[in-house]
Design a protein that fits this description.
Length: about 160
């Protein structure tokens, strides 16, 4: 993601259409913790980032992180997990623990729900209804709500 896509004031990440499988722009409500991380990332930048700067740049200047970066980090941490598993973990949490409505959970993952006719009539991105879901997920991932969350080991 680039800084142009991040709206810290409104706590939203706007992913442009060309970076989405659906070829449709996607808005992501940011939890308070996500905003804190982004503010810290901006403060830690060696120089003031431009709108086109990557928020989490790779080792090559002006290039994004490698698609394998998260997988390598998980491997070094000894975690029995893969990056795509984060999406399925969210979906399972939404259904089993968060009790999130089906349409809201699917919208959070940018999944299309319903047939073309129903989508034509319902054009909402459900952004405001997704905000509390993302806040609850953030709390869950950070272990703020449940004592049974196991932290990943550090390498």
């Amino acid at each position: 993601m680039t800084w142009r896509e991040v709206d810290l004031q409104n706590a939203v990440l706007e992913v442009p259409a060309h970076r989405m499988k659906t070829n449709e722009a996607f808005s992501v409500p940011l939890s308070d913790r996500a905003v804190e991380i982004l503010v810290e990332a901006r403060q830690r930048a060696r120089r003031e980032p431009t709108a086109d700067s990557f928020v989490f740049a790779g080792t090559v200047p002006r290039r994004p992180l490698s698609p394998m970066s998260l997988a390598q980090l998980l491997r070094r941490m000894g975690a029995d997990a893969v990056p795509h598993g984060f999406r399925s973990s969210f979906r399972m949490w939404a259904a089993e623990i968060g009790h999130v409505e089906f349409e809201i959970a699917e919208a959070a993952l940018s999944h299309r729900v319903g047939n073309a006719v129903s989508r034509a009539y319902n054009r909402s991105n459900l952004l405001e209804r997704r905000r509390p879901v993302m806040a609850a997920w953030s709390n869950y991932v950070e272990g703020q709500n449940d004592a049974n969350v196991a932290p990943l080991r550090r390498a």
